[in-house]
Amino acid sequence: MLGALTLAAQADCKVILDAEDKTLNTASHQYVTGTTGDTTVNAELIYAAGNIYMKINGKWISSGTTKEIEELGQKNRQNPKATKPTCGYLKDELVKGEMAAVYISNEEAPTGKVSTQIWISKTNGLPLRQDVDVDLGAGKAKTHNSTRFEYGNIKPPV
């Protein structure tokens, strides 16, 4: 029975990783709200034509390529010392009129804990929303990032 649960958790992690990988190759506009303590920061990202753009202080800047992010992700996944997340399916839920499967992922490393909840479209396998909580331990700030993903008619900023 434990083996079956382990395989299910691995399959659930694969669904999450596949959705994140798919994002790298799909034009998207991401709206991020990050909170640390009493400080809230809003940011925007655009993934288009293999490039990543970030809006900082009202100005768009180039922030690398999706290929670089993909290579870093693959390297991290292959690192035998890297902590492996535990993942699970929670439920189905509507996000802006689209049915999504909601998954959770929890990872504990020596530097802290990361808990993620991600809403993945049941239609196309792309993330629609993601909430990430990071706890770096006693006496250190906790952060919460919430990201909303939009697809379709996405172009690099001018």
Outline the structure in words.
Helix content is 23%, strand content 53%. The chain is an alpha+beta fold. It has one domain (2-151): Clam (outer membrane lipoprotein receptor (LolB), chain A), CATH 2.50.20. A nine-stranded antiparallel beta sheet has the order 4-3-2-1-9-8-7-6-5. A hairpin with a 2-residue loop joins β1 and β2 (39-48).
In angstroms, what is the radius of gyration? 16 Å
Low-confidence stretches: 1-8
**Count the strands?**
9
The profile of the biggest β sheet is: 9 strands, antiparallel
Can you tell me the CATH topology?
Answer: outer membrane lipoprotein receptor (LolB), chain A
Q: Multimeric state of these chains? A: single chain
The sequence of SSEs as H and E is HEEEEHEEEEE
Beta fraction: over 45%
What's the helix count?
2
Give a brief rundown of this model.
With 158 residues, the chain is of the alpha+beta class. It has helices at 2-24, 66-78; strands at residues 28-36, 39-48, 51-56, 59-65, 86-95, 98-109, 112-121, 127-135, 142-151.
Please write out the topology.
Elements: H1 2-24, E1 28-36, E2 39-48, E3 51-56, E4 59-65, H2 66-78, E5 86-95, E6 98-109, E7 112-121, E8 127-135, E9 142-151
Using brief descriptors, characterize the structure shown:
single chain; alpha+beta; outer membrane lipoprotein receptor (LolB), chain A; 2 helices; 23% helix; disordered N terminus
